[in-house]
Amino acid sequence: MFKFRISKSIFVYISISTLLVFIYSLVFQYLMSAYEGREYGFITAIYWVVGSMTTVGYGDIYFNSTIGHLFSIIVVLSGIIMIIGYVFLFAVHPRLEGMLRKEMPPKPKVPVDLKNHIIIIGYNQLVETLITELDEAKISFMVIDEDEENINHLISRKIPCVHGDAADENVLLNSNILSARMLIANQSDKKNASIILTARKLSNIKIKSLVKDMKNARYLKYAGSDQVISPKTLSDHTLYEELSIQ
Fold it and tell me: Do domains 2-103 and 118-243 have the same CATH topology?
């Protein structure tokens, strides 16, 4: 992936540089003809532009007019910016990325042998309580979340987790959905519907979802949810009890 980004950056850099040289060469020819009374071929124009952008400039071709001087300044400054960009792209950026990679927490992984577990999608305080009860009951579980801060928090507690969009088949497969016992969708109603549809394509797993608006409960059931729960109705009992996890 990193090599691909570098290759793409090289292509973009070369494309922009080539375009600038082409445009500046045309402008050079026009200004020399209109304001200096001199005619130069396109190759000579490229020679002047490249020399100016690289700040080599042999001084054999120059402008006498004010507009020509302004154009020369623009070309030189553009060249300096391009050189700085080149140095950052190919020297500084790789080192910075390497340093950041070392500082990043390890990528969350789900144990390959994790089976008969519960997949919880979306971490919040309600789920935190559920996690505590699952731990006490010694029931295996893992969490999927799109928020890096939540994932880092879970990693620090050594809780199995996966960072990503649960509506993505690969994310669910990486969560061992094929060997899981239950999936709990705890996102927005719209997102939950998408997650449920994806999960249903992969497995006949028991799916339970939390709904924000009870008007959307039927849509979640249509999508394939076996049980729809409104957190607002949880008063005298916990989510763990409502889910009837055995």
Answer: no
Tokens of 73: 């300044």
Instruction: Give me the mean pLDDT over the 133-153 stretch.
Output: 92
Cα–Cα dist 119/242, whole Å: 16
What CATH number should be reported for the domain whose range is 118-243? 3.40.50.720
> What is the mean predicted confidence (pLDDT) over 137-162?
92
The position carrying tokens 């969708």 is: 185
Query: pLDDT, tens digit, for every residue of 32-75?
Result: 999 999 999 999 999 999 999 988 877 889 899 999 999 999 99
- DSSP state for residue 235 in the 8-state scheme: S
Strand partners, 156: none
Helices (H), the chain: 2-31, 42-53, 66-87, 93-103, 125-136, 148-156, 169-174, 189-202, 217-223, 239-243
The pTM of this model reads: 0.57
DSSP 65: S
Of 78, 151, 138, 140, the closest CA to residue 109 belongs to 151
| Helix, coil or strand: residue 140 | coil
Q: Is 2-103 a CATH 2.60.120.10 domain?
A: no
What is the token pair recorded at 31? Answer: 């200004």
Q: What is the rounded distance in angstroms from the CA atom of residue 145 to the CA atom of residue 122?
A: 5
Q: Where are the domains of the chain?
A: 2-103, 118-243
